[in-house]
Write a structure and sequence with these properties.
The structure is a homodimer of 497-residue chains. With 497 residues, the first copy, chain A, is an alpha/beta fold. Chain A is built from 18 helices and 17 strands.
Chain lengths: 497, 497
């Protein structure tokens, strides 16, 4: 973006959101026009990145002339009118998104249109392919390459920290990239960061994987499918997610994955609510994966309550480390070996789940995790107690006797976030109970951990006006909720890729 | 918009397009975040308008804190999910658009969603009402107040310059506001500007109308329905127009109109292609007008070719002035008295068309036009020859004998624009023929006028690769066009309000 004075803009015949070509000697860049008032008449305001491309400093001259909209702008208009996009058109759109030639207005219109009209399988495949072709790629030079992805939405899901070492300990390659939290209390990258650095570049990542078989790094700085990051930036404030399928598949394709297990946590409190919905999503992912040359399986997993007991980056890292050392909660262990087992069977192993179990039981997975930690630059001797957690805490107790009927994932996640997660790495929630557990009046249900006093207080306040964990007799709890009248309802939207 | 360093943004827990509150002493403003890199860590970059609101200068401190999205952002998300908006929600959205609290992404998503889902009559009414309530209004303190609006799309339509003086000359009030050209060679405001200043403020406009009965001013600076201007800015690059009905009705409602004639030029080369389409548009306008307390009539007019012979601001002003002086082309005169006549009958006059004719024939309309010109600050004695037109010209001649089968409005408009219109006021096109005229080989079809040589050349080049005016025998011209293969087709989109 550049800012032109309105008089100059009129002179050039351009308006807001039109495009101009800036030229200085041999260097040039196309920028989108913003109109200012009372700028000096011969001045143009540019961002640093524009100045850098042009190699121009304050006081120097640049040539400015209007340019036609890029072709991709026309393809977006076509799409708005309902045409099917062809591959060359999709590639043009994605290229221009990456190179900043499309405005927020145009990207938002594309995203909104795809949300309303849906994206065909062809288009999803085209977008995934184009996203990969316009970014960096990891080429390990080996086969098969295994990978795992979770659709997310369930707090406390630290399964990846177990699955990656299990797979790598059995001699397979698994170059796992993860995101940081966007709307949740912790992303896998946030969790792993308590154990080892995750900000690796693609060469460092390759070295770690070729050495240990696995890695767990942050995907954000790798420039794999960079268009996706720009698209998410627009989807997020709109709480829509039409690029869901291509963006997941692009990230897997970009690391050269050949066999991928997709975890679809399903349940009222998860992103995917019903098994029917999970099936539909899974079918699309499998088909787009197939067209990209990947073999996929989708596992619908139980998503009605958090995985394990810990929620928040460091609390979860502690729990995952304990689990791989043999002291983990049943649901976490079971989920990890189920997913790892399926992956193993996809590449021809028999009794995959048993193999995964054995890797854990014999300490092979733990040794592999410590190898990966060391290769990524962390301390391979790290103990769970070494991971700092917030020293401010409050314990929430049951006000009645009964069974735990449900745990509200969204409220638990919100409490963890208000308490400081993911920014305050030691903040979060520790559950004492899971669904079905019997509790007496006064028994602890969960504790909130924070690093900062006022955040602990703010998180505690949420408990007073909501029901994070419901204890009672099922037959006496028929009223689920009331639809608020005339007030603005809190909305929760998850984008985790 | 403000620009924060990415480190600071992370610290505050805000991302791109999130909102922050800037505070300095008692002054505050909400701004949308843009992320920069390598900014000084304690610095924040703001636009002049933000600095002005805060009364802050370089080097001074402001308080910055994250704020929740405005309620209207949630209403837009609701709309994306398909809810029907209520009036208080629409008002909130429009307020926030006017006050800059919604981002381009959110406005684009709203516009795109309304394009795909359509806007109900209720919503159109709500948007029109909200647009007026958040802007300036003209209160003449008289009744009835007449008004006229054209949907546009036909080049050379200078009808307003005749209709306003005719109506005013018969003792009625007609406070006409017009737009400048957006995609066309001339808007009514551009045409009138050749006769008198059009940049009046609302008080000056009121004075002119109360004195002369009419006015013809530019609507852009009056802040009538200011939300509309912001919405158009987003619609335009997307070539969609879902706010069509409310934005027209808002502009009429804001000047206190009680009786409005809407001109719907219809034909293959116009914005509205078929009579069925015109009827549908008309019905919506009439109903939304009715809810706002206005009486509307819609006139479907012939839009297959330009109105009169002149296209371009000054060429058209000349033709309109000549016409009101008794030497006008038949189609222009007929259109003007038809529309004026309908308006007159709407307020109870009998034989409206005859009355309009008489006003023209007796010179009453001309005297009224000159009164209005004088009241707006122009020269009341202006003669057609006083209006300067481009001195560069080229005449395009027919290459065969036959009848004029069709005139391509879009190509004629494009030629006029490439020749310099509307910026070069003397540039444009003058037709020598209209549909149905007989021509011989070598007869002139039209001339292009320009103020600048290279623009004349560029306009002439278009003629070589297109058929602006087709001459022949109908039975030998069955091929209309070919659908281009694999190339990017020129798109033409008209927004004229």
């Amino acid at each position: 973006m550049v800012v032109l004075d309105d008089e100059i803009a009129k002179e050039l015949g351009v308006g807001a959101l039109d495009r101009v070509l800036l030229k200085r000697d041999e260097r040039e860049i196309v920028a989108i026009v913003n109109i200012g008032r009372r700028l000096p008449l011969d001045a143009i305001a540019v961002y640093d990145e524009v100045a850098k491309v042009l190699d121009v400093r304050e006081g120097e001259y640049v040539e400015v002339k209007p340019v036609e909209s890029p072709k991709s702008s026309g393809y977006i208009k076509d799409k708005i009118r309902g045409t099917r996009l062809r591959y060359n058109e999709v590639l043009e759109i994605i290229k221009d998104i990456v190179e900043g030639r499309l405005s927020d207005v145009e990207i938002a219109a594309l995203v909104t249109t795809l949300h309303h009209q849906g994206m065909s399988l062809d288009e999803a495949y085209y977008f995934a392919k184009a996203m990969v072709e316009t970014g960096e790629r990891l080429d390990l030079g080996v086969k098969p390459v295994l990978d795992k992805h979770s659709l997310g939405g369930v707090p406390g899901d630290k399964t990846t920290i177990l699955v990656v070492p299990i797979i790598a300990s059995l001699g397979f390659y698994i170059p796992k990239t993860s995101s940081r939290a966007i709307t949740s209390p912790a992303g896998t990258a946030d969790r792993v960061e308590a154990l080892a650095p995750v900000d690796l570049d693609i060469e460092e990542m390759k070295k770690v994987v070729l050495k240990t078989g696995g890695c767990m790094v942050w995907g954000g700085a790798l420039h794999l499918a960079p268009a996706d990051d720009i698209i998410i930036r627009v989807e997020y404030p709109l709480s829509i997610d039409p690029f869901f399928t291509p963006s997941i598949m692009a990230k897997k394709y970009a690391v050269g994955a050949t066999h991928v297990i997709i975890d679809i946590p399903t349940g009222r409190g998860a992103k995917v609510k019903t098994i029917e919905e999970a099936r539909k999503i899974g079918r699309d992912l499998i088909e787009v994966g197939r067209r990209l040359g990947m073999i996929l399986q989708c596992a619908v997993t139980y998503g009605e309550e958090p995985i394990g007991y810990a929620i928040g980056p460091n609390l979860e890292a502690r729990e995952a480390l304990k689990a791989i050392m043999g002291r983990g909660p049943t649901d976490l262990i079971n989920k990890a070996v189920s997913l790892a087992g399926t992956l193993l069977e996809m590449v021809g192993k028999e009794n995959g789940k048993y193999l995964a179990w054995e890797s854990l039981r014999l300490g092979k997975a733990e040794r592999k995790l410590r190898e990966i930690i060391e290769a990524q630059g962390g301390d391979p001797k790290i103990k769970p107690e070494d991971i700092p957690i917030g020293d401010k805490k409050v314990v929430i107790r049951s006000q009645k006797k009964g069974r735990v009927l449900w745990i509200n994932n969204a409220i638990i996640a919100r409490i963890a976030r208000i308490a400081g997660a993911p920014k305050d790495k030691g903040a979060g929630v520790r559950l004492y109970v899971k669904i079905g557990d019997h509790v007496k009046e006064g028994d602890p249900l969960f504790e909130i951990r924070a690093e900062v006093g006022y955040k602990l207080q703010a998180a505690e306040e949420i408990v007073e006006t909501s029901i994070p964990i419901n204890v009672g007799k099922l037959e006496e709890e028929m009223l689920i909720t009331k639809i608020p009248v005339g007030t603005f309802e809190q909305r929760l939207f998850l984008i985790e890729r």
